[in-house]
Design brief:
Layout (H helix, E strand, L loop, with lengths): L4 H25 L2 E7 L18 H8 L2 E3 L2 E2 L5 H10 L26 H6 L4 E7 L17 E5 L23 E2 L2 E2 L6 H15 L4 E6 L11 H6 L6 H23 L6 E7 L23 H4 L3 E4 L8 E3 L3 E2 L2 H9 L17 H5 L9 E6 L2 E6 L2 E6 L3 E6 L15 H18 L10 H13 L10
Parallel strand pairs: 1-8, 1-9, 2-11, 3-12, 4-5, 4-8
Antiparallel strand pairs: 2-10, 5-6, 6-7, 9-10, 13-14, 14-15, 15-16
Helix pairs in contact: 2-7, 5-7
Amino acid sequence: MKIDRLFVVSLGAITGLASCSSGQEEEAQRPNILILLADDAGYADFGFMGATDIQTPNIDRLAAEGCIFTDAHVAATVSSPSRSMMLTGRYGQRYGYECNLDKPGDGLPDDEELLPALLKRYDYRTGCIGKWHLGSEPSQRPNAKGFDTFYGLLAGHRSYFYNPETSDKDGSLQQYQHNGRKLSFDGYFTDELASKAQQFVTESEQPFMLYMSFTAPHSPNEATEEDLARFEGQPRQKYAAMMYALDRGVGKIVDELKAAGKFDNTIIFFLSDNGGSTTNQSSNLPLKGFKGNKFEGGQRVPFFVVWGDRFKRDQRFTGLTSSLDIFATVVDALDIPEEGLHKPIDGVSLLPYLSGEKSGNPHEALFWRKMDTRAIRSGSYKLIITRGVDSVLYNMDQDVEEMHDLLSSEPEKARELMEQLSEWEQACCKDPLWIEEGWAEITNGLHERLMKNEIRTAQDL
C-alpha cells in the first residue's frame, strides 16, 4: 500500500515534538540544588538558633520556610575533611581523608566522585562559588571534580578585601579566580561571592547545582566600615558585621531565586562546615567545645532544609542527622538508582522524615575520627576517646552540655560503644593519606582540658 510521504514526515515531526516536550517537562521538574555553607559559624550565632546579639534576618526567614534539624552534625570537625565528606556522601576515613590539608598534594583522591560529577550525568549545570580547600593539584580542582563554573579560592581562607601584595599575589592559593583565571574585585569579598551566585542562578537555563561556599565568618576578622558602624559598641563587633554580610549575601541569592521563578523547585541546604572557631568571636553555647574537637561545639551545627511547599513549614526535627545526608537526599529527590552511584554512600535521605513518612533517628549511630581522637554517638549516648589522654561518656538526652562523665557509673554502656566504634574502624577506615604535623600536640591537650571541665568554650583559652 502506498503511503503519502508528507504524512510520514508530519507524523515523525509530531512524534519528535512530543518526545522533546516530554523531555523538557521532565527536565523542568527536576529540582535545583543549593548548598549554602557558612565557614566556622557558631552554633548559637543565628536568630533561628536563639541569637539575640547577631542579626541574621534573611537566614532566619529562610529557615522558617523549611525544617530545622536540631541534632545535626558534620562528619568532621575541621574544614577540609568536613567538605570532602559532605560532597562525597561518604566517611572520609573510607578513602584516607580525615585531616585538614597539610602539604601540597594533599586533597581529594582521583577515584572519589563528588555530587556535582554525579549530577552532570543527569544534565545539571554545576557551580562552586567561594572556598574550595579540597586540594590544589590539577586533578583536585573544582573543574576537574565536576563543577562547570568556579569562582573563588583554592585555599582555606583569604582577606575579605582585594590585595595584590598578600592574598591576591601571583601564585597564591588564596587568589580570587574564575576557572583558573586570576580575577580582581572591588568591595567586600562576601558581597562579591553573592553577586556571582546571583549571576549563576539567572544564567542557568537547565536544572542546576550551586555549592555556595562562603568564607564568612572564618578569620581574618574583617568587615566593611558600613557594617562595623551598624554594630558599634557591640562586644563582638567584627564578627557581628561579618555575619550580617553573610546574611545579606544569602538574602540576595534567595531573592534572585524567587525573581527567576526558581525558588519553589530548589532544594536548599544551609549549614556550617564545623563549629565556631577559636580564631573568631563565635559562640557555640550552650554546647561545650569548638572547631577541631569532638565535643558538640565542634561538630553539632545549625542546619535546615527548604524545598518550596513540599513539606510543612517552620518545623523542627530532633532526630540524629548528618551532613552526609545531603548527598543521599539529593539522590532520593532525583530518583537516582543505587547502581548509578560511583561508590556506596553513608548518608540517609531526609525526604521521608521531612514529609512525615518516617520519624525517629535517620542514623542509629554516627562516627568521627581524626588522628588520636575518635568519637561515636549511638542513640542517646556519646563516647569520646583520645589515645594517651582519656575517655568520656555522656548521655546526650540528659546532658547536651557534656559536663557529667558517665564512664565509671555506666561501664557496660561504655564498652558497648567502644565495640561499635572498633567495628566501624575495622570495617570502614583506612590509614590517613596524610596527617597534620603538630595537630596532636595542640588538640590532645585541649581534649584533656575539655574532658576535665577545665575549659568549656574558646573564650576560656
